[in-house]
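User: I'm curious what two different proteins look like when written out as structure tokens. Can you demonstrate?

Assistant: Sure. I'll show them one after the other, since each token string lines up with its own sequence. Here's the first protein:
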Amino acid sequence: MALPDTGLRIIRPFLYMNEADIIGFSRKYDLPTLKNPCPADGRTKRAYVKQLLHQLNQENPGVKKRLFTALCHGNIPGWTVPETQ
């Protein structure tokens, strides 16, 4: 995703990882964590979708994985799937 007029490109590799794995890695290696300074932290569309996905996955186990697979195989303009090594 590119931010217009900034020359910045946002890459979201953590989309491919479970949040619990990231938290576990951070704890294992005693990495410092920072609280999000944004005043809207936890009250954003991102937070809403995170909770929605959690609820959907509780009600329909595996739905999160199926949605992700659909994203990867849906021929969405601008969406690229990283090469596996």
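Here's a second, unrelated protein for contrast:
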Amino acid sequence: MTTRENIEQVLWSACDTFRGKMNSGVYKDYILSMLFVKYLNDTIKETKEELSKRYNGDEERIQRALQRGRFYMPDDASFDFLYVNKKAPNIGSLINVALKSIENANGGKLRNIFGNIDFNSQTIGDGKEKIATLSNLLEDMNKLDLRPSQLENNDIIGDAYMYMLAKFAGEDGKKGGEFYTPAEVSTVLARLVAPKDNDRIYDATCGSGSLLIKAFNQVASKKAQIYGQERNFQTWGLCRMNMFLHGIDDAKIYQGDTISNPQTVEDGKLMQFQCIVANPPFSLDKWANGYAADSSDKDFKMSKELDIYHRFDWGVPPKSKGDYAFVLHMLHSLDSNGGKMAIVMPHGVLFRGASEGEIRKKLIDLNLLDAVIGLPANLFYGTSIPACILVFKKGRLNHDILFIDASKEYEQGKNQNSLRNSDIDKIIDTYKNRKEIEKYSHLANIEEIKENDYNLNIPRYVDTFEEEEQIDIHAVMAEIKELEAQRAELDKEIEGYLKELGL
């Protein structure tokens, strides 16, 4: 049987083929794309064997059935075909043609799923070097048997894919945070919104889809509809592969800039979602591209004609910091009947003034903000700064905001910190039961928020100051005297030894 460990070992070994030639942010696309091709190849191969038995080798009926199946792969685009030709002088071109053929053979389902990836790129090398590199990649992938009947369980390919995304994000530094949210943080967000059967789940900046998958997995029946949008074309393709590998074939993942060109629109209005999770880029500069590119922050205005969905009627964020642009977009996409949203933000959104302060006041006055959760530092790829989670809920009956300071409860790592299961459970339990815990959480009523001028900085509400233990001066002096007496006795002993030695 093929285990998750088998897959991870092979994939990590395949990385060695590319290390030194390019950074992981580039070669991840080659490895993950080829894993997807191998997955399609082995799945279709096993299906073909089953159909051959069912139709007694009738090739015409077999091909018709295959073309009606979940995926279809022409013989000259299969992994097996590429493996046989792994030493061909034009192997890079053969792979490119195969990828395009796979996309075309599956209609809109796999359209552009491989993005702009080029296996014939000079980045891989010239001549024999390129042949050797791609041949080694195919050799590594051929070690995997990904036929469904040979997999330890149905989740291992998707789990291995997520494992590699995490590894690549860790290696890729700052850029890693653009396509992957750490698994523990994704779990916190997913459990905070707690999606139910038939909910629509949305991530407006979905990256490679890890957050959406975590949220989807909270629905035991797996009856929920996934929606996402990602600006980066290559990452959009990785996200769609991720969905297919996790069996979420009907996920609707759109490509494009969410703020300037939202794709989740129906009947001329933004679609409404019961659950929203997101980890947008922190303090994105020039987020208003296409609205007022030449204006300064000071006089930045946005006409209602440009903002056709009226997302910024509650206020326009500064052009140099797009945090509230994403918040407002998603709030206007949140179902008014109890919709819940959990979004990762930098702490600056809690206290910055000017237009952001006005937006914050509006959201609080509209009773939309449900909780503010402070996270430990160094959790995210590419930044060591601590972040927070804002939880919004529409149709709230209570008029208070829960503050949780979870910044001191984590497991310290060599390069990156992480949340333990116990840390996650404590956050969720405190939130669900709106608990007051000394030096950890506080339930603030709206009057208290107003007294603080709508400043949401967590230390204003959760006092985590630890008093230092008082020092007993008399005990310390007594200890010093005792040590001095011991030293005097030791000096006498040393002096006696020196006399005996005639020194």
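A detail about the second structure: The chain has 15 helices and eleven strands.
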